[in-house]
UniProtKB/TrEMBL annotation:
Residues 63-146 form the POTRA domain. The chain crosses the membrane at residues 37-59. Keywords: Cell cycle, Cell division, Cell membrane, Membrane, Transmembrane, Transmembrane helix. One of its GO terms (cellular component) is membrane. It is found in: Membrane. GO terms for biological process: cell septum assembly. The keyword Cytoplasm does not apply. InterPro entries: FtsQ, POTRA, POTRA_FtsQ_type. It comes from uncultured bacterium 5E7. Pfam families: POTRA_1 (PF08478). This is Polypeptide-transport-associated domain-containing protein FtsQ-type. It comes from the Bacteria.
Length: 282
């Protein structure tokens, strides 16, 4: 009644609009097809360069064998290997060969070291060999040589045989363990292999006959048909046959020798090839 009512007043706050900064539009990315085309182009250039390099490597003389180094003990082995792998090339030092431009060997990039090793090991004096390439133009051969231990006589020819039975070469029997004369059969030649059991039996006969029976083995012979035979003093001959059961045959020979002594007879021939020995006296 006397007082006046206040009118409600509404206050509205309005934010001022913010200024939005402008950003540069992103650069367009290359499409997937474009990237693939670029990669393929780079790959083509890489392959072309590789093929060109390989073509040059195979065609150039840079990688052809020019120098040969042979590590072997004997001159005969070195010469045989040099003749096999670098024919016609001069030796500038022991075991070192240098080939002139017109005598270069195969390209080392395509050279088969396994085949070269096979060629070297085909030499009878070589027991084992390792062939290695040393780029760009050197070939190195390391050799283990066979050593003669047995003389194998065929007629007037003396062949030297290694401990693995391989016939090495012709030479003197001096200093070798045993001398075996071949009677009949095909003559041996360097590179052939003789029966190791025959060699071992001949060595045993040479050692045991004088030691146990007092019979010196003046000559040991081998025949493919009749086996081993020993010729002793006064041309006494003992036929042992194949190299097996040698201890049994030695025991039989000892029995026959004792029997001849008991009868005061001189043995001239004993055949131990059969179950029952046969013998003759003078």
């Amino acid at each position: 009644m006397g007082s006046r009512q206040r009118e409600a007043t509404a206050v509205v706050a309005v934010d001022r609009p913010r200024q939005i900064g402008s950003r540069p539009a992103p650069a367009p990315r290359p499409s997937m097809d474009g990237r693939r085309a670029l990669a393929n182009t780079c790959l083509v250039f890489l392959l072309a360069g590789t093929l060109a390099a390989l073509g040059w490597a195979f065609a150039t003389d840079t990688f052809r064998v020019r120098n040969l180094q042979v590590n072997a003990s004997s001159n005969a082995v070195r010469q045989a290997i040099e003749d096999a792998l670098a024919p016609g090339c001069p030796e500038v030092a022991p075991g070192a060969v240098q080939c002139a431009e017109g005598q270069l060997g195969p390209n080392e990039l395509t050279l088969s070291t396994a085949e070269a090793q096979r060629q070297v090991k085909a030499i009878p004096l070589v027991k084992s060999a390792t062939v290695k390439t040393d780029l760009p133009d050197r070939l190195r051969i390391d050799v283990v040589e066979r050593q003669p231990e047995v003389a194998w006589v065929v007629g007037t020819q003396v062949f030297r045989v290694a401990d693995d039975g391989v016939v090495i070469d012709q030479g003197s029997p001096n200093g070798l363990k045993v001398v075996i004369g071949q009677v009949g059969g095909d003559p041996v030649k360097p590179g052939d292999k003789v029966d190791l059991d025959v060699i071992k039996a001949a060595e045993e006969l040479q050692d045991q006959l004088p030691a146990t029976l007092g019979i010196p083995a003046k000559r040991i012979q081998y025949s493919p048909a009749d086996g081993l035979a020993v010729v002793s003093d006064q041309d006494f001959v003992a036929m042992f046959g194949p190299p097996d059961n040698l201890n049994l045959k030695m025991a039989e020979l000892q029995r026959v020798v004792q029997l001849a002594k008991d009868k005061k007879a001189t043995l001239s021939f004993v055949d131990l090839r059969y179950k029952t020995p046969y013998f003759r006296t003078r």
